[in-house]
Sequence to fold (307 residues):
Amino acid sequence: MKSIKLLLISLLFVVPLLAHADDGYIAWKKQVLAEISTAPIDEAGTTTFAYRDYSQPVRDLADKRLAEVEKYITDHVNDSTLLYIRGWLTRKKLYFYIYDSQQAGIVDLSTDNKAEGLQEKYQSYYRKALDLDDAPDAPAHLDHYMLTAMGTDVLAAPDIKEKAMKKKIELTQKGNALHPNQEWGSYEFLLGTYAEQRDYDNYLKTVNEMMARFPNSSRMNELVEYKRQAEAAIEKRDREAASVTDQHDVYAAPDPKVIVNGLSVVKKVEQPKAPAAEKSGLNLWLLFGGGIVLLGLIVFLMRRKKV
Fold:
């Protein structure tokens, strides 16, 4: 009788755990990640990407998956990949809205509340995913493809792109690489983010890090030149700052917009503007930074054609 009692007590604890483990979440997550991934899944390069166009079935699938996210989020709130999925699908909703606006002849969404709300929402999910990924014992971790999607997102705020690329670099340095030039390429995207923001200090710090990481690189001369120009930019910035009482006169925020699919979309990120005097001494460096940003846009447009 005593053993039966112990068995019943054990079942009270075990059954709920089994039910939780068998809630279908793992299989569901695997399916959704396959649907949103453009990465090859076999040797033939086949993908399971399900968001190739703006048709109603595709929109219905996005709505269905977002509703399912809400069902799972309470029990799996610490899963960074679930927050990534939530962010990716919300971002897709933004692109549906951009497309519909374009079809309706609306070319400026910089004051559109719905576009702004969707943008802020998906970026908040991305930030949460990146924060959750910091925990060593996280139930799941972001992979290269997820980090690349966030780090090269043309609408993402600089802090998202920066943290995603740093994480990708860290993964690569731990030996988790998909191709030989992955670390260098990730550093280039990171430099592009700093160049876009005129963040001279972090740009210089990253160049120094690259020089230490790749001491025998055939492109060392480029890094030396980037370092020289970054140091010159910092010197000019500090010299001019010392002689100007109102910093806002020097670092005025530009119009916070970004063009996507021919539309002007709000980008609520204040970006310090370099003084005119600095631009003449940074031609090569800014050209490099602009090239990285352009590369990101090209990647986006190529993926856009596939969608």
User: Anything to note?
Assistant: Residues 4-19, 247-256, 269-295, 297-307 have pLDDT under 50 and may be disordered. The longest helix spans residues 80-103.
